[in-house]
Write a structure and sequence with these properties.
The complex is a heterodimer. Chain A has 31 helices and 23 strands. Chain A is α+β, with helices and mostly antiparallel strands. Chain A has 4 domains: 64 residues; 183 residues, no CATH class; 311 residues, no CATH class; 193 residues, no CATH class. In chain A, the strands form 2 sheets. Chain A has a 6-stranded mixed barrel with strand order 3-4-9-6-8-7. In chain A, strands 14-16-21-18-20-19 form a 6-stranded mixed beta barrel. In chain A, strand 7 and strand 8 form a beta hairpin. Chain B starts with 5 loop residues before the first helix and ends in an 11-residue tail after the last helix. Chain B has a two-stranded antiparallel ribbon. Chain B has one domain: Winged helix-like DNA-binding domain superfamily/Winged helix DNA-binding domain (Arc Repressor Mutant, subunit A). Chain B is elongated, with a radius of gyration of 14 Å. In chain B, helix 1 crosses helix 2, helix 1 crosses helix 3 and helix 1 packs across helix 5. By secondary structure, chain B is mainly α. Chain B is 54% helix and 10% strand. Classes of the chains: A alpha+beta, B mainly alpha. Chains A and B meet through helix 2, helix 3 and helix 4 of A and helix 2 and helix 3 of B.
Chain lengths: 879, 101
C-alpha cells in the first residue's frame, strides 16, 4: 500500500506539467522511483522523494509562463465574451448585483460597527448609565448628584463628563435659527480628546454657576452663520435669549452628541445637587486611564455606586451603574440586525456565484469544439483552465466595477436614513478605501468560486475526436456535468428559500407592528416645537398667556379642527417618569413611592382633541384649569387601573416628587378624567402609566404644538410660521413634523431591515428562477433529438411537457426541503427582530413553499413548451 | 548570463563527480528532490546540462524502465569554474572545481 503513495503523488502532479514535457517527465519520475525501490528505499523515503515532483512540475509550468500569454488570454477571453454578449451581460449583471449589495452592506457595517470613532484613542471611551440592580443590563440616564459623586470618587478615569442633547435658538446676526446643541460639563472635550480649531473648548473652569456664559460653535454653524471668520472668538451671541461669549470653534466633523453644532455649559447649583438625586436626565461619558480595561473601570464604578446606595438609600437603593464601550452604547441593538443582513447578503452573492458557475458550465458545453481544437493544437490542461479562469476574472472584474457603482448609488440613500431609523453612525456610511479593499478581495474570491469548478469540469475528459467531429451534434451532455448543474440549482434554491423565510418573517412582524393601535390618530396632525426663552417669558403667567393666545388664534382658522400643545409628544423618546409622594393626602413610604411612579405630560385642553385621544371617564381640561384654581390631573387607563384597581379613579388625588421647574406646588391634583392609553415609545412599546397636568397650571417653557387639520396638514406650516413671527419674531419653530411622519419613523428601522432583506430575497428567488430556467432550457436543447425520437415513436406532447415540468419541480422540491431545514435552524437568529411572530411560524414556511414551487413552475413554462413543440421530423433529419 | 547559485554549483559538481541520474544527484548532494529537480531543469534550459535516455536494452536487462541520463556540457563546466572561483573568494574553505574525470 505504502509503495503506491509515491506513484499517486506523481500521478496527481502530472497535470501541472506542460503538455509537451509531460511524457518525458512521467517517464523519468517513474524510472527513478522504480530504481530507488529496487535499491531498497522504504515507502516513506520514496514518498518523500516523490514530493519533489510537485516543485519540479511547478517550475516547468512557471518557466513556460509568459506575461504576454496572459495578455493573449485576456484579449482572447474578451473577444469570446463579446461574441456572446447575452451570456456576458447576464453574468456581469448578476455579479454586479451580488457584489454591489455586499459592498453597500459592508460599508454600512464598516461605518456603524468597525470604523474607529472619530476621536483619539476611541477604545478608552465608555458610556456610563444608571441601572436597576434587578435589571443591570438596561441602562438609563443618570442624575446630577450621582454624576458628581462618580466623577469625584472613582479611580481609573482620566475624566468623566455629563451632557444633555437638545436644541437652542440662535438669534441676532440674522434670522432666528434652531440649532442642535448640547449642554455639557467642563470635562466633555477632555473626555473626547478633541481640541478647538480656533479659541478654546469648554473646561471645568466653566462649571461653577458664577462663571461667565461661554459657547463653543460647530464648524458647520461657524461657516454658515459667521462666514468662517476666526475673529468670532470673543464675540457675544444670543442663545435662547441670553448672551454667550464665543469661547472657540470646533474642527470639521466634530458633531457629538448626534449632530450638535453648539455646546454650552451644563451647570448644577448647590440646590440641584441636594434635591436632584431622582432626576434622571444626564448622559455620561468617560475616558479610561491608559491601562484600565472597561471591566476594571466598571468595577470601580460599581464600588462607588454601592457606596452611594448605602449613603442615600431613599434614592439610590437598588440602583447600580452600567458601563459599556461608547460605540456599543451608540449602536445598541442595531448591531445584531446589521450582522444578520451582512450574512444574508453573503447568501445572495453565493447564489450569484452558483448561477454564474452554472452559466459558465452550460457555456463550456457549447464550447467543447473550441476546447477540443485547442487541445489538439497542444494546449495543456493547465493552459485551458487558465484561459477559462481569465475569462471568469474578466467577468468578475466587470461585475465588481459595476457593483461599486451600485454601492455608491445605494449607500447615499442608506446614509440619509440615520435620523429616521435612529441608528447612530449610519450617516457615516460611505464607500472608502477599506470598503474598496474588501470589495476587491470579495471580487477575487467570487471569480475563483464561480470560475474554478466549471473550468476544471470543462477541461476534463475532452474527447478530442468527438469534439472535432461536431460537438453540437452530441445527443446528450455527459451525465456528470448534468448532475453538477442540478446540484448547483438545488443549492441555490435552498439559499433562496432561507432568505425568503427570513423576509417572510420580517414581513409578518412588520404587518403586526403596523396593525398596533397607537392610542391616537396620527392622520392630518401637524406638529412643531417651541422653546420660550426664560429671559423674556420669566413668569408662569407670561408663558401660559402666550400659549393661550397662540392656540386660540390657530383654533380660529377655518381649516383647523383642533389645536393643542403638549410637553412630551408621543414617539419622540420623551421619558419623564417621576415617583409619587402623596396619595389621597397620605405621604407614601419609600417602597410605595417607587411602586407608583408615573410618566408626566403637560397638556392644553385642545391636545386630546387634536390627537384623537378618547376620554373614557370624567372630563378633559378646560380654560378654568389655571394657576390659583384647584389643581387637577387626568390619568390614562393604565394608571387608573394600576393605582385604583376595581375603583373609580375620579375624585382621588395625588402629588409627585417634581415641580417641573415651576417653583410652585409639586405636580399633582385630583383626578378629573381618564383618557385612553397611548403607546409613547412606538408600536412595540408597552404602555406606561401616565398623568397629564394642565399647561395652565404648570406652564412649561418647552412645548410641542399639535394641530389637527381639516385637510392636508402640510398647508398649515407656512401660516403657522407667519403667525408665530407676528406674535414673537425671535421665536423659531423647530422639529416641524406631522404625526404621520413620526409614526412612519417609529417603524423606520424594521421597515429598513424588511426592505433590505426583502430585496435580497427577491434577488435570490429571481436568480434561482433564472438558474432553473437555464438548466432546463439547456437540457431541452441537448435532448432535442431524443425528444423528437420519442415523439416520432408515438409519445404524446403532454407527456413531454410533464417530463420537463416534473424535472423543474424535482429540483425545486429538493432545494425547498433543504432550504426549509436550513431556515428552521437559522431563523432563531432573527428572534430579536421579530414582533408578534415566532421564528418557527408555520404560515410563513407554507407561503414560502407555495411561492417557490410556483416560481419553479413559471421558470419551467418556456422550456417545457419548447420541448413539447419539437418537430420530430426536423429533429431527426438533422442527424 | 547570471552566475550559478550554490545549489546549481552543487548539482553540477555532483554530475562532474560521476552522478548521472536525478536520484544519484540527490544522494550525492544531500539536497531534497524538490530542490534538485527544478535545478536540473533550469540547468538544462540554460545549456549547462544535457540529457539523454540510458539504453533501453540495458534497463530491460535489469527489468526496469530506462532512466534519464544527465551530463555536464562544456559551457556548464566553464560556468561551474567561474562560479566556484567566485564563491571560493567569499568562502575560502571551498574546494576548487575539477574538470570531468
Amino acid at each position: 500500500m505504502a509503495r503506491r503513495v509515491d506513484r499517486g503523488i506523481v500521478r496527481v502532479a502530472r497535470w501541472l506539467v506542460p503538455g509537451d514535457a509531460r511524457r518525458d517527465w512521467v517517464r523519468e519520475w517513474v524510472a527513478e522511483l522504480d530504481w530507488a525501490r529496487r535499491n531498497g528505499a522504504s515507502g516513506v523515503v520514496l514518498a518523500m522523494r516523490a514530493l519533489g515532483a510537485w516543485p519540479h512540475a511547478c517550475w516547468l509550468q512557471w518557466d513556460r509562463w509568459r506575461w504576454d500569454m496572459l495578455w493573449h488570454d485576456v484579449t482572447n477571453a474578451a473577444r469570446g465574451l463579446a461574441r456572446r454578449p447575452g451570456f456576458a451581460l447576464v453574468a456581469i449583471l448578476s455579479l454586479a448585483v451580488g457584489i454591489g449589495a455586499n459592498t453597500a452592506m459592508f460599508s454600512v457595517v464598516h461605518a456603524v460597527l468597525l470604523r474607529p470613532l472619530p476621536f483619539p484613542d476611541p477604545h478608552a471611551l465608555v458610556a456610563i448609565w444608571s441601572a436597576a440592580t434587578d435589571a443591570p443590563g438596561r441602562g438609563y440616564e443618570s442624575t446630577p448628584p450621582d454624576f458628581v459623586d462618580w466623577r469625584r470618587d472613582t479611580p481609573g478615569f482620566v475624566e468623566m463628563a455629563a451632557f444633555v442633547a437638545g436644541a437652542s435658538a440662535l438669534t441676532g446676526d440674522g434670522p432666528a435659527e434652531q440649532v442642535p446643541s448640547a449642554s455639557v460639563t467642563g470635562g466633555f472635550f477632555t473626555v473626547l480628546g478633541v481640541a478647538a480649531l480656533h479659541g478654546r473648548t469648554l473646561s471645568p473652569d466653566d462649571d461653577p454657576m458664577s462663571a461667565p456664559n461661554h459657547v463653543v460653535l460647530g464648524h458647520g454653524l461657524w461657516r454658515r452663520r459667521f462666514g468662517g471668520d476666526p475673529s468670532v472668538v470673543g464675540r457675544t451671541v444670543t442663545i435662547d435669549g441670553q448672551p454667550f461669549r464665543v469661547a472657540g470653534v470646533m474642527p470639521q466633523r466634530f458633531a457629538y452628541p448626534l449632530n450638535a453644532e453648539l455646546w454650552v455649559p451644563l451647570r448644577f447649583s448647590e440646590e440641584d445637587l441636594r434635591t436632584q438625586r431622582g432626576a434622571h436626565y444626564l448622559e455620561v461619558v468617560g475616558r479610561l486611564e491608559g491601562d484600565t480595561s472597561i471591566d476594571r473601570g466598571g468595577q470601580a464604578l460599581l464600588a462607588t455606586a454601592a457606596r452611594l446606595a448605602a449613603l442615600y438609600p431613599r434614592t439610590n437603593a437598588g440602583r447600580t451603574v452600567k458601563v459599556q464601550a461608547l460605540r456599543e452604547s451608540m449602536v445598541g441593538d442595531a448591531r445584531q440586525a446589521l450582522l444578520l443582513l451582512l450574512g444574508a447578503v453573503g447568501f445572495v452573492l453565493l447564489i450569484v456565484c452558483v448561477n454564474v458557475a452554472n452559466l459558465c458550465l452550460t457555456r463550456a458545453l457549447g464550447r467543447e469544439r473550441e476546447l477540443a481544437v485547442r487541445t489538439a493544437l497542444g494546449a495543456g490542461r493547465v493552459r485551458l483552465v487558465r484561459a477559462l479562469l481569465v475569462e471568469s476574472g474578466l467577468l468578475a472584474l466587470a461585475g465588481g466595477l459595476a457593483g461599486v457603482l451600485i454601492a455608491l448609488w445605494v449607500t447615499g440613500g442608506i446614509a440619509a436614513l440615520d435620523e429616521r431609523t435612529g441608528i447612530s453612525l449610519l450617516d457615516q456610511t460611505r464607500v472608502d478605501r477599506p470598503v474598496l479593499i474588501f470589495t476587491a478581495i470579495l471580487t477575487a474570491m467570487t471569480a475563483l468560486l464561480f470560475g474554478t469548478l466549471p473550468a476544471w469540469q470543462a477541461s476534463a475528459r475532452i474527447d478530442v475526436s468527438r469534439g472535432l467531429r461536431d460537438a453540437s451534434s452530441a445527443t446528450t451532455a455527459p451525465r456528470h456535468r448534468r448532475r453538477l448543474g442540478a446540484t448547483l440549482i438545488v443549492a441555490e434554491t435552498a439559499l433562496a428559500v432561507v432568505l425568503l423565510v427570513g423576509a417572510g418573517l420580517l414581513m409578518r412582524s412588520f404587518l403586526a407592528l403596523a396593525a398596533v393601535d397607537l392610542g391616537f390618530t396620527p392622520a392630518r396632525v401637524q406638529t412643531f416645537s417651541l422653546s420660550l426663552p426664560e429671559a423674556r417669558y420669566a413668569t408662569p403667567e407670561a408663558r401660559a398667556t402666550f400659549v393661550d393666545t397662540l392656540l386660540s388664534r390657530i383654533d380660529a382658522w377655518p381649516h383647523v379642527e383642533a389645536a393643542g400643545a403638549v410637553f412630551g409628544l408621543p414617539l419622540t423618546n420623551f421619558g419623564y417618569v417621576i415617583s409619587m409622594s402623596t396619595l389621597d393626602g397620605r405621604r407614601l413610604d419609600d417602597q410605595e413611592q417607587d411602586e407608583r411612579s408615573l410618566q408626566v405630560r403637560v397638556a392644553t385642553p385642545g391636545y386630546f382633541r387634536a390627537m384623537g385621544i378618547p376620554v373614557r371617564r370624567g372630563r378633559l381640561f378646560d380654560g378654568s384649569d389655571r394657576r390659583g384654581a384647584p389643581a387637577v390631573v387626568i390619568v390614562n387607563e393604565t394608571a387608573a387601573g394600576r393605582l385604583w384597581p376595581g375603583d373609580d379613579a375620579l375624585g382621588h388625588a395625588f402629588t409627585l416628587g417634581t415641580r417641573l421647574g415651576q417653583g410652585g406646588p409639586p405636580v399633582g391634583g385630583s383626578v378629573v378624567g381618564v383618557v385612553g392609553d397611548v403607546r409613547d415609545g412606538g408600536p412595540a412599546s408597552t404602555v406606561r402609566p401616565t398623568v397629564y397636568v394642565p399647561h395652565g397650571q404648570f406652564p412649561t417653557s418647552f412645548l410641542t404644538v399639535t394641530v389637527k387639520a381639516a385637510g392636508e396638514p402640510g398647508g398649515l406650516v407656512e401660516p403657522l410660521g407667519q403667525l408665530l413671527a407676528d406674535l414673537d419674531s425671535a421665536l423659531p419653530m423647530f422639529r416641524v413634523r406631522t404625526m404621520e411622519q413620526l409614526a412612519a419613523d417609529a417603524v423606520a428601522r424594521p421597515r429598513l431591515f424588511l426592505t433590505l432583506l426583502g430585496v435580497f430575497a427577491a434577488a435570490a428567488v429571481l436568480l434561482a428562477a433564472i438558474g432553473i430556467n437555464g438548466v432546463l432550457a439547456h437540457g431541452v436543447n441537448q435532448r432535442t433529438r431524443e425528444i423528437g425520437l420519442r415523439l416520432a415513436l408515438g409519445a404524446d406532447r403532454g407527456r413531454v411537457l410533464r417530463m420537463v415540468v416534473g424535472q423543474a419541480l424535482a429540483l425545486a422540491l429538493a432545494g425547498l426541503g433543504l432550504g426549509l431545514l436550513l431556515a428552521i435552524g437559522l431563523s432563531r437568529f432573527l428572534r430579536g427582530l421579530l414582533f408578534g411572530v415566532e421564528p418557527a411560524d408555520l404560515p410563513t414556511y407554507l407561503a414560502v413553499a407555495v411561492a417557490l414551487a410556483s416560481v419553479a413552475l413559471l421558470a419551467s413554462v418556456v422550456p417545457a413548451v419548447r420541448a413539447a413543440s419539437v418537430d420530430p421530423i426536423a429533429a431527426l433529419r438533422s442527424e | 548570463m547570471r552566475r550559478l547559485s550554490i545549489t546549481a554549483c552543487s548539482v553540477l559538481q555532483a554530475l562532474v563527480d560521476g552522478a548521472h541520474y536525478g536520484f544519484d544527484v540527490i544522494e550525492r548532494t544531500g539536497l531534497p528532490s524538490g530542490t534538485v529537480y527544478p535545478a536540473l531543469a533550469r540547468l538544462e534550459r540554460d545549456g549547462h546540462v544535457s540529457s539523454t535516455w540510458e539504453s533501453e536494452a540495458l534497463a530491460h536487462a535489469e527489468g526496469r524502465p530506462a532512466r534519464r541520463y544527465y551530463r555536464v556540457t562544456a559551457p556548464g563546466v566553464r560556468a561551474l569554474r567561474d562560479a566556484t572561483a567566485h564563491y571560493q573568494a567569499l568562502l575560502p574553505g571551498l574546494r576548487p572545481a575539477r574538470g570531468p574525470a
